[in-house]
Known about the structure:
Shape: globular
Helix content: 25-40%
Strand content: 15-25%
Strand order of the largest sheet: 1-7-6-2-5-3-4
Oligomer: single chain
Distance between the termini: 43 Å
Amino acid sequence: MDPRDRQTFIFHATxxxxxxxxxxxxxxxxxxxxxxxxxxxxxTAGPVIIxxxxxxxxxxxxxQLCLPRPIFFMGKAELFKFPPFGAVLRNLGGFPVxxxxxxxxxxxxxxxxxxxxxxxxxxxxxxxxNGRGLTLAKTGVARLAIEANCRIIPICVIGSDQILRSFxxxxxxxxxxxxxxxxxxxxxxxxxxDRLMFSLAAALPDEMRGVYAETPIGFT
Length: 220
């Protein structure tokens, strides 16, 4: 048995979570201006994966503050080692993943989030870019979408790397939701990952497109 099976994980928005997000929204308004585009692309109910470019460790906060539905997300296992903080993260919808290895427990838990009809938040790159551009994505998002036959909403995070860079002005952090991607019957994890990442790249500023800057000829 995995030790994480002995812990309690949440699959709904708790009163604690709603209160914490409301307080966080007030506090973060001091250091950033949030802007959301394409919110109509997010289904109001049912399982969906939101897949975003990963600029900084801060990204999940403006994402959650801009979306009306709770996000359930993977966090590096080290964050959950201190029991009180781990309990807070679990109540906020987080669950631990061991990075740098194939963590089957984390993938099974992610599938449970979708089975409960919730929003699963993931960063296909697996690591943050610090504003240097998209890096080569892993196929975990696509595998989950294909297995669950659920939509992926690509999300662009722009400006989070500018937070706290200057105390003279609040940077604008833009969360842009793109049209949903539905797995095709002939999709492979790699082909769906490519569709996702090239969609993200096309909606990001040139300097943030990284390895997906040039779409191959004939790619659709």
